[in-house]
Amino acid sequence: MSDVVHGRLRALLGTGGVERDPAGLPRAIPDTADALSLVCRLAHEEGWKIRIEGHGTWLSADAPADLAVSTRALDQVLSVSPADLVATVQAGTPLEALRRRLADDGMWLALDPPGRPERSLGSIVATASAGPLRHGFGPVRDHVLGCTVATGDGRLVKAGGRVVKNVAGYDLTKLQVGGFGGFGIIAEVHLRLRALPRADVTLVARGTRDTLTSAARDVMAAELVPAALELLSPALGAEADWSLAARFLGTDAAVQSDVRRLAPIAGLAWQPLPPDRTAGFWGLVARGSQGGPITLRLGVLGDGVDDTIDLLAHDLDEGLLSAGAGAGMIRWTGDAPVERLRAVRRSAAAREIPMTLERAPWAVRRALGHFGAYREGVGQIVGRLRDTFDPGQCLQVALEGGA
C-alpha cells in the first residue's frame, strides 16, 4: 500500500514533492495551494487517511495514516502592504522568518505563540495557540482576516478577505482558526499587522502566587493595559518563586508613562529586564510549553485564575504553568495519564471552563480529543461541518476523542 501511495504522489507532484518519513510513510510536500488541493482530492478518491504536518515542531507527527501532507514547502510571504497593514502568507512560513520580513517594512504581527520560533503560521492558526500578547492584542482569530483552505476532498475554499473590513456571509475563517485541521488544511493566511513598536519594556515581580494574582487584579482595576501580564510558575520562570511579568510596547513616551504608573501598584518590587534579556525571557516562556509531552489550555475569566490553578494543582501539578493574569487563559505542560486528564476536564466543565488539548501523543489525542465532549446539540453541528469539509473523513484529526 505504501509503495502505491508513494508512486501516485510522485506522479502528481514530481520526485521533489514526495519523500518518506522515518517510519517509511509517504509524505507529500506541495508548494502551492493548487498542488495541496490535488493531493487531498487524490486521497479522497482513493480513501486514504491524511496526517497533517507543518514543520513538526509543535504537534507530534504520529497520527496513523496512509500518507502525510507537509506544508513546509508552502513557505512564501506572498504579499505585504505597509499602507494597509496586511500581509498574505503561505501556511508553512516559519513565524521567525515572517517577523524578519515584516520588520524590514516596519511592521509586526502581534502573536507570540508557545513553541519554537520556527513554528509555522499554519500550525499557530489551526491550533489558535496565542501567547502572553493575547492580553493586549487579542486571540489568534483577531489577527486573521481570511484564509485559503484545501478541504478533505480537494476543494479550495477561500474564506474572509484581504483587508480590515467586515465580510458578508458566514465567517468560515473563524471555523479554521482553532479547528486543528479538522475542517481542511490551511494553505494561505491573510494577516492583520501593526506598526513595529519602538519601545519594548518588561518588568518582573516575584512573590507568592496569591500576592501576584492580587497584584494583577490591581493592575487591571487601575485601567493599565500592558501588552502582556503573565503569571509564571517557579519551574517555568526558572525562579524559586512565582513571577508576574508585565510587558509594555509602543512609543517611547507611552511606554515610559505606563512604567511610571505601574511602579506604585500593589506595592510590588518591579524589576525591569535589561533590553538584551527581554527577547530571551519571553522566548523561555514560549519554549517552556514544550517541556513535557502534553500541553493543555483552560479558558477562564481573570477572577477565576486562582481557583483554576488550584484545580490543576490538585489533579495534576503546578510545574510548567503560565496564566494570563488579566485575560485569564491558563496553559499547563507536563505528563499525566488519560484518566487524570479526563478528571481535569470534568472538573473544569463543572465550572463552565473549556479545556483544549493543544498537543499530546496521538494515543492521548485520540482518547481525549482536542475539545472533548460537546454540549448537547453542538456535536451534531460539528459532525455536519466535518462531513461538509471532509466528506470522506480523510483528515486524521481527533477533535472530540473516542476510544
Give a brief outline of the structure:
By secondary structure, the protein is α+β, with helices and mostly antiparallel strands.
Task: Give the SSE layout.
Layout: H1 2-13, E1 18-20, E2 26-28, H2 33-46, E3 50-53, E4 67-70, E5 77-81, E6 86-90, H3 95-103, E7 107-108, H4 121-127, H5 134-137, E8 144-150, E9 156-160, H6 172-176, E10 185-192, E11 194-195, E12 199-207, H7 209-221, E13 228-232, H8 234-237, E14 242-250, H9 252-262, E15 271-272, H10 275-288, E16 294-298, H11 305-315, E17 320-324, E18 330-334, H12 338-350, E19 355-359, H13 362-368, H14 378-389
Distance between the termini: 26 Å
Would you count the extended β strands for me? 19
> What's the CATH first level of the largest domain?
Alpha Beta
Within the CATH hierarchy, at the fold level, what is the topology of the largest domain? Uridine Diphospho-n-acetylenolpyruvylglucosamine Reductase, domain 3
Whole-number mean pLDDT: 92
* CATH architectural arrangement of the largest domain: 2-Layer Sandwich
Computed structural class: alpha+beta
Strand order of the largest sheet: 15-12-14-13-17-18-16-19
Tally of helical segments: 14
Characterize the largest beta sheet: strand count, sense, and whether it forms a barrel: 8 strands, antiparallel
The level of helicity is 25-40%
The number of domains is 4
User: In percent, how much strand structure appears in the residues?
Assistant: 15-25%
Low-confidence stretches: none
Give the CA-based shape.
globular
What is the radius of gyration computed over CA atoms, rounded to a whole number of angstroms? 21 Å
